[in-house]
Amino acid sequence: MEKGIVFNIQKFCVNDGPGIRTTVFLKGCPLNCVWCHNPESKKIKPQLLYDARKCVYCGRCAEVCSEDVHIFENGKHIINREKCCCCGKCSEACFSEAIEIAGKEMTVEEVMGEVLRDKLFYDNSGGGLTLSGGEPMLQFEFAYALLKSAKENGLHTCIETCGFAPSEHFSQIVKLVDIFLFDYKLSDEQKHKEYTGVSNELIVKNLKMLDDLGANIILRCPIIPDVNDTPEHFKAIADMANSLSNISEINIEPYHPLGKSKSELLGVEYQIADLSFPQEETVLQWIDSVQSFTKTKVKKA
User: Could you report the per-residue pLDDT of 89-109, keeping only the tens digit for each?
Assistant: First the structure.
């Protein structure tokens, strides 16, 4: 029975592929994007989230924790995250919902049981299952089993991927995926290393391989102010789409600072905390800039 680590199952999604969908978010990512809006997805293991604004300092979490993770001193709630085994006892005891465990082990049957509850909505809207993360390809066997089960149940499937995974895994999974929502974050290799932690060489290789295999691909392009909102990158996005045969659409994903608040819950630093939502006028300019170089449809994600 295949198992994996899931940190969210989000229903009635309309931006993760066609129709009404259920998006299953898997833990773990090989990239470390400075703008990541799901920082709780980076590590493959479960993690403790703590919201100090909700904490009433009742001490119940400390009472049930056998690892001394929660310490109350001088009116402060101190969390020793290195000791935390993410058993979930503190989260269950916290009536103010200040503590949450991001990520839990689930079987394919458990996940699909949740997904298939809404099959009627998928059938009526052309929707289905989307795998996201993190990077779902990091849990390849689990992702493969989920997609296989989805197909056996007649579901349309999408996978959101950064493209950084063994090429042979993509070649194996392509037959189970109706649409690849493929990230194209930075066209400049050095900038890609600087802002994500890895080269884009393997990513581009996998993108071209999927195109050669006839996969239906939507390019998803996060645009981050002062990082990749440049004319050169906009043209590179269009050039990439123009060089391939199966790019059905280009999605522009404007930066949003959701990752800042989530990083606070994780107790980690958010590196670009001074950025805010771009103006809608600016986003439209980005879209127009990319569209000026290609006939492929460009739209806001």
Answer: 999 999 999 999 999 999 999
pLDDT of residue 1: 72
Token output for 187: 């066209």
Instruction: Say if residue 113 is exposed, middle or buried (CB neighbours under 10 Å; 0-12, 13-18, 19+).
Output: exposed
ω before 28 within 30° of 0 (cis)?
Answer: no
Q: Angle at which helices 140-152 and 108-115 pack, to 10 degrees? A: 40
Could you tell me if 103 and 27 are in contact, meaning their C-beta atoms sit under 8 angstroms apart?
A: yes
For 167, the 3-state DSSP assignment is helix
Residue 61 three-state SS: helix
Q: What is the pTM of this model?
A: 0.94
As given in the structure block, the two tokens for residue 289 are: 């800039």
Amino acid at 27: K
pLDDT digits (tens, 9 = 90+) for 163-184: 999 999 999 999 999 999 999 9
For the record, the structure tokens of 167 come out as 């090429």
Closest CA to 29 of 21, 37, 17: 37
| Whole-number Å distance between alpha carbons of 231 and 209 | 27
Please name the residue that has the structure tokens 């600016």.
Answer: 282
Task: Report the alpha-carbon distance of residue 149 to residue 157 in Å, rounded.
Answer: 10
